Amino acid sequence: MFQDITTLLLDHKAFRDTIDLFVERYKSKNISVVAGIEARGFIFGPPIALAIGAKFVPMRKPKKLPGEVISEEYTLEYGKDCLEMHVEAVEEGDRALVVDDVIATGGTLCAAMSLLERVGAEVVECACVIELPDLEGRKRLKGKPLFVLVESR
């Protein structure tokens, strides 16, 4: 079943409250990078990054980023995909937060964490608006903490 965040985005107060909940959680965790996963991670990542004083790094589908990139393939509940990140966007020692709208099987978050760790960043936590716990994506996160606002069955 597809989970959609459109109703959240249409309600400016609910959208602001959602961003505020994330900001409150991360403002004192010394995060230097907020990595947002295409496409809906781009909705939540930039306002969080701005509010906590971090840079925003987009994680995009292949051939969407100019310049030199590194890639990570991963499996989804419905096939395979790939994420890319600019090579010099993240530096060794950066403390990263990975943001997306939904965690299902966890493949996309794992790919994002792998990209960040390959360049020497420390992934502090993953954050999603919705978790689909029946798909057990949390189990694939290699013990990294996951913060979610809503569980959906």
Automatic annotation (TrEMBL):
The keyword Protease does not apply. Residues 11-139 form the Phosphoribosyltransferase domain. The keyword Iron-sulfur does not apply. It is an enzyme of class 2 (transferase). This is adenine phosphoribosyltransferase. Its EC number is 2.4.2.7. Homodimer. Signal peptide: none annotated. Belongs to the purine/pyrimidine phosphoribosyltransferase family. It is found in: Cytoplasm. It catalyses: AMP + diphosphate = 5-phospho-alpha-D-ribose 1-diphosphate + adenine. One of its GO terms (cellular component) is cytosol. GO terms for molecular function: adenine phosphoribosyltransferase activity. InterPro entries: Ade_phspho_trans, Adenine_PRTase, PRTase-like, PRTase_dom. It comes from Kalanchoe fedtschenkoi (Lavender scallops).
